[in-house]
Batch of 2 targets.
Target 1
Amino acid sequence: MESTEDYVELIDDLIRTQGEARLVDLAERLGVSQPTAGKTVARLQRDGFVTSEPYRSIFLTERGKSLADAARERHDLVYRFLLAIGVSQDTAERDSEGVEHHVSEETLQAFQRIINSSDKA
Amino acid sequence: MESTEDYVELIDDLIRTQGEARLVDLAERLGVSQPTAGKTVARLQRDGFVTSEPYRSIFLTERGKSLADAARERHDLVYRFLLAIGVSQDTAERDSEGVEHHVSEETLQAFQRIINSSDKA
DNA sequence: GCCTGAATTTAGCCATGGCTCATCTTATAC
DNA sequence: GTATAAGATGAGCCATGGCTAAATTCAGGC
Ligand SMILES: [Mn+2]
Ligand SMILES: [Mn+2]
Ligand SMILES: [Mn+2]
Ligand SMILES: [Mn+2]
């Protein structure tokens, strides 16, 4: 699921930057209502990506953490790639949010090569 | 909707290559059951992208045709771009099918520049 | 002209991902 | 200690996009 990746990535991000991941912040950052975020988190828990108890903040399981790490890595690479080929920061942010979910390892490697050669230049 | 684009693009394709777009071919090419394809075509009709009468083949409206054209153009450009940066044909086919729906005009232009310069080289 | 098999439609189910409105907890300010 | 406001849940709705099983229509072969 695409949204699974976006959620765990954001949960990880919130834990890093805010110390904890609250539903209200997930909802705000994702532009979604709190009940929607809640339902999705329930699914994430059912599928073993997070743990959460009523009225408490959300934690990633091992499984959630590795998915989050992989997702962030991919997201960052796509973002840096877009910048490297001359796309504006705003557009790179928007497009990478979608494209990240559809690029294979092989394509990511090609992106990496482009980044490398534009670094050198 | 992503699937709207995929459907009209494929309908256009079938009309070009097969002379007409039948539900059974849509379903087969999209890897989906016939009832699923049928329901989606009903939505396309409701939204003014196609016309269809019971048990007959499917036609694009003006609106459907221009969406199909735009979608194919974008799809092709993404595909050619992936080839240009060294991705294999198979992967380029798979990845372009997803990526096409998430690239802005600005990113497409950057892709085009890369294609151009690799053509020259 | 009818039989039969392929194509289509109908009915009914499910999961995901959205929403609003209402209710319930919890933490904090006083 | 309690009132209150913020945060979280619950209930109930909807659209999209998937499926299977069953019924219907249509076209080609005989
Ligand atoms: Mn992401
Ligand atoms: Mn994303
Ligand atoms: Mn396409
Ligand atoms: Mn596609």
Target 2
Amino acid sequence: MYLKNVKTFAIIIEKENWGMIMVTIKDIAKKLGISYTTVSRALNGKPGVSQETVEKVLKEARKMGYQPNAIARGLVKKYTNTIGLVIADITNPYYPSIARGVEDAARKIGYNVFLCNTNYNKENEQSYLKTLQEQRVDGIIINPAKDDSPNVYDLQTPMVLINSPSYGGNNSTIEVDNKRGGFLATEHLIKSGYKRIAFIGGDIASYSNGRRFEGYKEALKEYNYPVDESIIAYGSFKTKSGYAIIERLLKLENPPDAVFAGNDVIALGILHYAQDKGIKVPEDFGVVGFDNVGFSELPQIQLTTIDQPKYYIGKLAFEILMEEIRNKEERFVKKIVLEPELVIRKTTRGK
Amino acid sequence: MYLKNVKTFAIIIEKENWGMIMVTIKDIAKKLGISYTTVSRALNGKPGVSQETVEKVLKEARKMGYQPNAIARGLVKKYTNTIGLVIADITNPYYPSIARGVEDAARKIGYNVFLCNTNYNKENEQSYLKTLQEQRVDGIIINPAKDDSPNVYDLQTPMVLINSPSYGGNNSTIEVDNKRGGFLATEHLIKSGYKRIAFIGGDIASYSNGRRFEGYKEALKEYNYPVDESIIAYGSFKTKSGYAIIERLLKLENPPDAVFAGNDVIALGILHYAQDKGIKVPEDFGVVGFDNVGFSELPQIQLTTIDQPKYYIGKLAFEILMEEIRNKEERFVKKIVLEPELVIRKTTRGK
DNA sequence: ATGAAAGCGCTAACAT
DNA sequence: ATGTTAGCGCTTTCAT
């Protein structure tokens, strides 16, 4: 089963073993003829050990290749210096940026992060949450898979939610102002002279998508455009979905001449269809996405979109989480909303 | 400092606390008036407990909201059900695919994965390796940051290397046949009728890049093309680097009419430059990349490239790692080489 | 300045 | 079938 596509499966060396002879503080205490309490103190720079002893211990520790056991420490100290990051799919370019933000911030203070991909699946999410708690992570950052059933996250563990309202659990949240973003996107389309603007969303159960849709409707109203159900559609957050839906909408007797897509990935599918059919973008057809994901700025794509500070969101989420971890009793629940920004590129006429 | 771009920073609820009253097997034993060993046995489905007791325990555990403590278990059982995944940058689309492969495979057997981004930095890598060992991960999968100084990874921990030879440490490795890939790419360019084929690599210290270059040279020789140093260049694995280098090469008095790029990200920069300058691809200029990253197949890009089974590599790396973890004494070091595949798209004339 | 002892939550002998 | 004990590697009182 391995062997599919395997060219070489060779060079087998026998009996190479891993040496699992981990040295402990007891070992180095014995070697030095002192108590292991002293070793512990020396290793941790605690007061009450003579300079001389400290040096002896440090030297011996290095010599013996001592590696502190974070597991044992965690057992007594009640924290693990680890957090969990639960996202839908690291393969969607939106998430890696957030993940980097979280991880860079974490690393700076010696924290580790467990990466968990739910693959947009609620059961996977629950399962991961359970595991993370068993691993006694100090906190969790989560971008919920869906928001159809209320996300009641009242775990024993500090938690901050990204792009999701907090139901019941009183968790801190951080999100971009999705409604405002939706408004900006739609308004831009209107001001660019497009007349029939469709909305093509992803999962209808997505909170952020819903907010973007509200912004869309608000803009239409403000500019006296009708809200036409026939050119409003939901699918999934996939390129294929965008492609399939725009194909359908464009066959309507009264087709749209522009679309605000639920995110960049969907917008990409729309662009793909336009290209396949030789539809001129932005002259005859306008599209704006959401997220300002990496590929959106490619010269070949140049997608007009709504930017959100992804890396910063990850960083901020971690910082807030740390605050909550540090002040477990007497914490302050925060609801943070960041400003989105319209990025005009080549898939709309501009003004 | 938080406040940049922050719209709302509000809704503050005071004194919401995390209830850190974790229930242990002792608690449920006390409640039930039995020994905690019995509880442990019941919870783990071990023999020697009456059906009746098992049910009582399970019920009470659920009722009290018991969460097993994986830390404590790890301390006695000597394994943590956790591995580390060390890569350069999750933001480079090549890695998420691998990460998914690893994580999906891990999840299937209840393993967690620590994600570590070295950001192409050797010091970060060392630091992460240290931390991972302290956390007593059961194993490590690593795609080394660089290969200039030999990667001597003889840790106490089982380890498999991706895209890197193993120096000294006798670790199993898994890689695509980079040389063959380089050959295929270059040969394709030759057969497509391009006459002066440049090579634009990433980090000169990269092992995989070096192999690709060897394949490039081999193909040139086989078809009696000269190997011309003036159109061979290295930079970094970034789009910008590709852009800058091709700009320079194209100003040569004898410029190339095609290029084999060290990876797709670099190729993208080259394409970018061609577009900026109105150079016709593939008619007047051919480019092939390496990796077949997600964006390469976008209709707007359609990059000819060398595919490698990224997800599968991740999956395989995990499976091999698990084998090594399970057979620590008497392990078999494996060197696996996978077959790359030429994917012809629109940035070369084809045959 | 150093050591002895207890204990974190659990599993695994070793009884009974 | 159940309980007792020891111990994983460490930190933290409490002595000395």
